[in-house]
Amino acid sequence: MTPELGYAATVAALLLALYGSGAAALSAAGRRGDLRRSAERAAIGVSVLVVGCMLMLVYAFLTFDFSVRYVASNTNLGTPFYYRITALWGALEGSIILWTFMLSIYTLIVIARYRRTQPQLYPWVLAVMLGLSAFFLLVMTIPAPPFERLSPIPADGRGLNPLLEDSGMITHPVALYLGFTGFTVPFAFAMAALIIGRTGDEWITITRRWTIVAWYFLSLGLLIGGWWSYHVLGWGGYWAWDPVENAAFMPWLTGTAFLHSVMIQERRRMLKLWNLALIILTFSLTLFGTFLTRSGIIGSVHAFSQGSVGQFFLGFLALVVLGAFSLLAWRLDRLHAQGELDSIVSRESAFLLNNLFLVAAAFTVFFGTVFPLLSEAIKGTKVSVGAPFFNLVNIPIFLALIFLMGVGPAIAWRRASAENLRRNFLKPVVIGIAAALVCRLLGIANALVLLCLALVVFVAAIIVLDFARAARARRRTGDGWLDATWGLALRQNRRYGGFVIHLGILVLALGVAGSQAWSTQTEATLNRGESMELAGYTIRYDGLQGVEESNHAKVIGTFTVSDKKGPYTVLTPAKKFYPQEQTPIAAVDYRLGFVEDLYLVLGEFARDGSHATIKVQVNRMVSWLWIGGFVLTLGAALAIVPEPRRRPAVPRAGRTVVA
Amino acid sequence: MSGARRILRWAIPLAVVPVLVLLAYGFRTDPREIPSPLVGKPASPFKLTAFDGKPLALEALRGQVVIVNFWASWCYPACYEEAPSLERAWKTYKDRGLVMVGVNYQDKDEPAKRFLAQFGHTFPNAPDPGSRVSVDYGVYGVPETYFIDKKGRVRFKRVGPVSDEMLKEQIERLLAEAA
User: Fold this and answer.
1) How far apart (Å, rounded) are the C-alpha atoms in residues B70 and B88?
2) What pLDDT does residue A293 have?
3) CB distance B10–A329 less than 8 Å?
4) Higher per-residue pLDDT: A387 or A247
5) Which of B2, B6, B27, B79 to mutate to probe the A interface, most A CBs <10 Å?
6) In terms of DSSP H, where are the helices of A380-492?
7) Do A166 and A78 form a contact (C-beta atoms < 8 A)?
8) ipTM for the assembly
9) Are residues B27 and A377, on separate chains, in Cβ contact within 8 Å?
10) Alpha helices per DSSP H over A162-271
């Protein structure tokens, strides 16, 4: 019964969303408040129905309703309780529900916040968002129905993909989709602004905080994805330039560009056309990412279902891109820049370069990802470009971006004077170079790492000196220490939130550079009691042990590790045998450390446990990635704190107060 | 409005069309058709003993079109999807000089025999002890299907389940060739 109800709810939600979208558009065109209220009620209805669908599917999972195909293919009687809930987004159909759910929640927030404050833009925003919801509901109705029945009903299900039985996979899709869907709001506002012709910075100031939130969740999603890859897949890496990763990385790159370029529009009334193009691009890339991973047009280590979903997504992508860019072309006359670039040596110019590099990076990632298609279309052979291509092209771009990260916030607007340059950059440049020299003397020989280190220290010095200078100035005006630092950060939360995010990125950059340059690994076959050594660790193989879990069997190896100081730890990497999988799955065991992780993967072994092959990796500075992610979180939180009401005694000119 | 602006107005939306066309082209291609270095090379010979105890050797089949299908009983759903198509193709073409051979990949005898009984396979199927044949053919996962022409060369490789149309197309093509 539940599946039929679920399907009916999906269809009803689809009809409501279509109606609501039309009604909202009509209400905007005809200024009819009654239609607008009706559209709002439709949006609420859509949310209720979508939540209902989700709950019904969760219920089907919890009760092992294998008559539902989706449940049968993503769970079995042994699947642990929590994974039965998160199996909801373990595959295509459920992740579309999750997406629709988030979109409908965002729609409700938009209704609550902007119904009264943005009477002109708001109805169109509602129309766009409900239209987008309608598409996802259409996907749920026709090509990927989550409630499809299975006949005959199997006695047990196939089970969740074992690689997804991990805490990372509980949170990764949620964060990623919060990011993806988050960009819908700025996109919808941009479309609304184009439709009614109010192409000023209004839509940008309204959606500023939305953009940061979306960007933050996208970053978080990428990082959790990296963490999952690192501690589950057992290859010791966190990023492989796989099409699926690239699909999420491209909107991140253009989204980052957007986040920065809107500041120039707010300050200097430039780049109106560019900003609109960027948000259209970013939103389209989120759709493209889903299309890429769900259509099966490009091979990936991630196995995804094929089906007509791809055609639906491509059609919709075409509609969105062509529609949005046509709208942009139609309003071209209203998109003249009011300001202009005064000098190459200015903050505008640094931001422009930053945008150029980010978009170039997005383009190269796009190019590399679709290259197999391109080469097949032109030369008839399928050729993939791998990590070497992406690294070669992107490393210089990212180093340049780090450099600009230091220049941008510290250089003057319009035209930087020699005085400004000397005051803000002399010390950091010296500190950066000195740091690189010290590291060189300490024995770091890798030129790329040294360059990265110099840049990171340079940028960090700029940030720290800038904050110290501002805090000192506050002290001089009589503020206490706490008010001069913490109070300053809160008062200018946008600037300092950005700075903290930049620090997080610097930590990340060090993690990437260090782990690429200094990680080491080896593989050995050990007899029971025999030891091996790597990077100061001595690892002794003590034997095997078999364990039966609820949904798989496990062979665990025991390895006693000691370092120079004596006994260190016991690691138990394992191999998991799932009946539904063709090959066993490695369960990595590791000790994370600030400087290095010890990481063990169990390979082949003799059944009697007399010998086993073990892959040992010492991965250096990988933890810095996760620390960087934590710093990023702090920065994003600071950046979205509502700006405090300013004391009337110190009014600041030229700023509009925005909710 | 100046001419340049008018062009720009059109150029903006039109710029994305080639990308969309390329993506649409993607549907016509199949990422599973991975080029195999074996295609065009002589198929490596094998001698196996079928489940029914009869010997099964590729050498003896020279001059005929041979399909070698690697499968397993645990390979659900792909092997289950393609099994009826294989049997149909075998029944249709066996009198015109087609030989079909199933090689059971990393499986246990009991469930493998159940699989064969379930689909009523009448073409010879053999287990592959030690995965020797599978390694020779570079089998990456199951199902994989190799099409061998009358001269004994691998002409086509399919990763993933085969369909009726695909079997028909390849078999007709290879049968039409001279020995």
Assistant:
1) 17
2) 75
3) yes
4) A247
5) B27
6) 387-410, 418-441, 447-476, 481-482, 488-491
7) no
8) 0.73
9) no
10) 167-182, 184-196, 202-232, 243-268
Q: What is the 3-state secondary structure (H, E, C) of A14-36?
A: HHHHHHHHHHHHHHHHHCCHHHH
Residue in chain B closest to A331 (alpha carbons) equals B9
CA distance A294 to A308: 9
Give the number of other CB atoms < 10 A from CB of residue A654.
Answer: 5
Taking an 8 Å cut-off on Cβ atoms, the answer to whether B13 and A326 are in contact is yes
| Cross-strand partners of A68 | A149
State both tokens at A216. 């933050």
Strand partners, A457: none
Structure tokens given for B109: 């005898």
Question: pTM higher than 0.90, yes or no?
Answer: no
Q: In this model, does residue A130 exceed pLDDT 50?
A: yes
Query: Is the pLDDT confidence value at A312 over 90?
Result: no
Neighbours of A513 (CB within 10 A): 24
Distance CA A471, CA A456 (A): 22
CA angle A628/A630/A631 to nearest 5° reads: 65
C-beta atoms of A382 and B29 within 8 A:
yes
Q: With bands split at pLDDT 50, 70 and 90, how would you rate the model's confidence at A248?
A: very high
- Write the single-letter amino acid at A547: V
| Cα–Cα distance measured from residue A396 to residue A595, given in angstroms and rounded to the nearest whole number | 25
| H or E element, residue A616 | strand A611-620
Nearby residues of B22 by Cβ (< 8 Å), 6 or more positions away: A370, A373, A374, A377
Question: Tokens 């422009």 — which residue?
Answer: A352
Joined together, the tokens standing for residue A2 give: 């539940």
Residue identified by tokens 């396979």 is: B121
Angle (CA) A354-A360-A363 rounded to 5° is 145
d(C-alpha A282, C-alpha B7), whole Å? 24
The closest of A33, A183, A185 to A115, measured between CA atoms, is A33
Name the amino acid, one letter, at B159: V
Residue A486, C-beta contacts closer than 8 angstroms, at least 6 positions apart: none
Pairing of strands B98-104, B125-127: parallel
Q: Among residues B38, B115, B45, which one has the least CA distance to residue B73?
A: B115
